[in-house]
Amino acid sequence: MCHSDRVRVPVPLRERLGDLVFVAFFTVNIGFITYMVDLEQLVVGDPRHFRYPLWPPRPMVDLVHRYGTDLDPLLLARPAFWRMTIWIDVLFFGPFYALAIYAFVRGRDWIRVPALVWSGTMGANVLIILMEERFGEHATPHFPAVLALNLPWLLLPVAVIWRMRRDHPFTRAVPA
Asked: What pLDDT is attached to residue 5?
């Protein structure tokens, strides 16, 4: 049987239970991080003097500000590079998360290249942010806690790269 006599079919999610970790991560990112935590940093320019926006909800704004006050002065300082990482998250990563959730659940190989691009970009962004968090003008006095809270955004991109190492991460060839 030659390759042209074979078709690719998705491997059912029940046979890829490890992918549920990625689906959960992408879901938390789109539903909580990107369009609440990160969006707050775009709609509230100065956390010291602001009016509550229509979105995100007031308790989320207060939560973000509390985290910045207690642990992460960089989040409240909002330098230009930081705001750019937030724009990348809102404009590019948010839509990616929606597509990735669909692709990981349904077993769609076309997400491979976007997932690799996301992984590299996310990893670079987080490493740059962590360097500022540790040694920069707005370094946190609580670096171990901030590092621990940011570790998923370092480890999951590496895991996605590992998961996407094959040309067809979600499908298998079967006779036509």
From this structure: 76
